[in-house]
C-alpha cells in the first residue's frame, strides 16, 4: 500500500496533495513534507498556512479524478449498509468507473476485485485507489465481467458480495448463485427503471431471496424565519438499487 494523499485546507480552498509534493498557488508555493500527517500545518513560501487533514470518503468523492458520473454517497451508503460490507469480505464489482464505490468498500475493510471495460477508465481508477490508500485491497482489472464469469466460477468463487453498476447487470445476476457464498448479497445499481426491472426478474429466476428495489431520493431542508420545509429545488433522484441474497 502506498501512502495516501492528504487534503490541505486554508483560506477557503482545498488541495489534494501527496507527501513530498510541491504545488504552486497565488498564495505561494506549498511543499508537503514526506513525513506529513493529519493535523499538521504547512506554510507556503509566502507564509500562508494550510491545515493538513486525512481524507474522508466525502473528500475523495469531491477530489478524485472522474471518468463519468460516479455513484453518489447516499447510494454508496445504501450498498454498504444493506449488504453489510465489512472487514474480511470478498467483493466482486463490475463497472468501476471513477471507483468511488470500490474505494468505500476497501476503506470498510473488504477485499475488492473490480472490473472496468474501458482501459483508460481502469487506469484512472487504479490511480484513485492509490491516492485513497486502498490499492493493496482493491484489484482493478481491465475487462468485461460477463466474459470472465466462467473463469471466476472455476478459480475464484465464493464472494461475499456482488456489486454491479453496468447496463448488462442482469447477465451477471443470472450467475450470482455460482459466484456468491451461501447468504451472500447482490447489490445492483441502475439509473433506469428498465434495467432495474431486468435485474429483479433475473434475480427471481435465479432463485435469489429477499429481492427488493429502492429508489434513492434525497431532499435538503430549508430553515428560515417563516418556517421549516423541504427545499423546493429539484427532487434529488439518483437511481435505483436492487438487493437480493443467495439462499
From TrEMBL:
One of its GO terms (biological process) is tRNA processing. PROSITE patterns: SAM_TRM61. GO terms for cellular component: ribosome. It holds the Pfam family GCD14. Keywords: Methyltransferase, Ribonucleoprotein, Ribosomal protein, S-adenosyl-L-methionine, Transferase, tRNA processing. One of its GO terms (molecular function) is methyltransferase activity. InterPro entries: SAM-dependent_MTases_sf, TRM61_C, tRNA_MeTrfase_Gcd14. Gene3D superfamilies: Vaccinia Virus protein VP39. The keyword Phosphoprotein does not apply. Residues 74-222 form the tRNA (adenine(58)-N(1))-methyltransferase catalytic subunit TRM61 C-terminal domain. This is 50S ribosomal protein L11 methyltransferase. It comes from Halopenitus salinus.
